[in-house]
Amino acid sequence: MRLSEYLLVVRKRFVLFAAIFLASILAAFAVTSLTTPTYESTTRLFVSTSGNESAADLLTGNSFTQQRVKSYADIVTSPAVLDAVVTELSLPDLADKLGDRITATVPLNTVILEITVSDPSPYRAASIANSVASSLEQVVTNLETVDPTLASPVKLSVIQPGIAAKVPASPRPLLNMALGALIGLALGFGASLLRESLDLRIRSVEDVPEKEGSVNVLGGIVFDPNAESNPLIVHTSPKSTRAEAFRQLRTNIQFIEVAEGRKSIVVTSSIPSEGKSSTIANLAIAMADTGQKVLLVDCDFRKPKMHKYFSIEGAVGLTNLLIGQVKPNDVIQRWGRKNLDLLPAGQVPPNPSELLGSEAMKKFLAKAEKDYDVVLIDTAPLLPVTDAAILSKMTGGVAIVVGVGKTTKPQLVAALGHIEAVGGRVLGFIMNKIPTKGVDAYRYRYSYKYGSYGSYGAYGKYGNYGAYAQPYGEEAEEVAKVEAKPVSKTPRKSTKKA
What we know:
The structure is a single chain. With 498 residues, this protein is of the alpha/beta class. The chain folds into three domains: 3-35 and 171-198, no CATH class; 39-160, Alpha-Beta Plaits (2-Layer Sandwich); 205-484, 3-Layer(aba) Sandwich (Rossmann fold), CATH 3.40.50.300. The chain is 43% helix and 15% strand. It has helices at residues 3-12, 14-34, 55-74, 79-89, 122-144, 173-198, 233-236, 241-260, 276-289, 306-309, 318-322, 328-331, 352-356, 359-371, 387-394, 409-421, 474-484, and strands at 39-49, 102-105, 112-119, 154-160, 216-222, 264-269, 294-298, 333-334, 340-343, 374-378, 398-403, 426-434. The strands form two sheets. It has an eight-stranded mixed sheet, sandwiched between helices. β8 and β9 (340-343) form a beta hairpin. α1 (3-12) packs across α6. The chain starts with a helix and ends in a 14-residue tail after the last helix.
């Protein structure tokens, strides 16, 4: 991953990242506030030996002292030294713990002994450090004196007495807060990456599974909170951003249709509530606007919606046609002045899958493809039922609507598996409910702006034109021909070679 992708993850999971970061800062502040301040005082001793003043004696004495001073550091916390300190300073309550507060160190290649004492009281820390130094001097003198009539060959001299510190050695507020911030950054970033890796919802085109490079993203539709109350946006608000997105989707699908010679297309989704019905309804209006003769068939026998969207009679429809009760001309209804005919689902049958896979359905589709330029079929979602999979084998292909932020990768993979199991063909994906705000919105921006109607819309990725590109050059001319072709009064011959 590039740095920009890591930053994007943090932006997407900013709430989680910020919560962990602030929690770490607050934890560091709480620890600092609740920790009892501790002061340190250090006494420094110089260790020397007595002897002749010759250079050889001085060198020998220095080596002897460096070896001895390490042993002196080890006996600083011994009872022989500390018992006298406890008695002198009247510290019976610290008799067992005094050694834990004292540290003796010897800087490398020196004869200096440093005794450091930590205590909540800066004055007591200084008093203990000086008392320990005094007691150590006496103990060392006793240990190094072999003959009581002679002076000790080793002498300890205080070169820096312990003084009361003005600033506590711990806690260190700035250091603790800095460490808390660093830990918060690391934990927040790690949690954001983990959350992102565990999020299986499809949020971008990159999340859509590829099947041997043959499945493309046909387009994208931006999210509209008023979609339920205003489903036919291409008709009611033709200059809106979403309407333009449907027109671009129409162009992409027409391009594939010309290349493959397809006339019937199934539009479905993996799970319910991904917006497939409103998508196919607006797509049908957009196609009819170009002069094509379009038939929109509602094959969603579970929850039919087309008759509600277009405000037409829906009591009698496809189910009655398939069981032989009516003729096609009796149930197909013209909508407005456009070249758009609608066939509602009719009554909900007890056996939808069997009815859609019947021979009557095959004959109806064959006749519809002769009478119309485009036949759009709305079906139930793929995962709950098998209706769409059955129709995928009988039609030119399937366009799957993907709800951004709703559909998961396993669900979409399973939906593709249902179509592949029956030998159907997936024409591509339609990204729906694309966010117009937030971090994910930038992924779906237009590579151009259409007038003044906004900068979000379809995410063009089809053929070899790339993820964000629009067709240009010779490809653009081909698409323009498709858009501008005249109304055909006779069934169009397939361009697919036998």
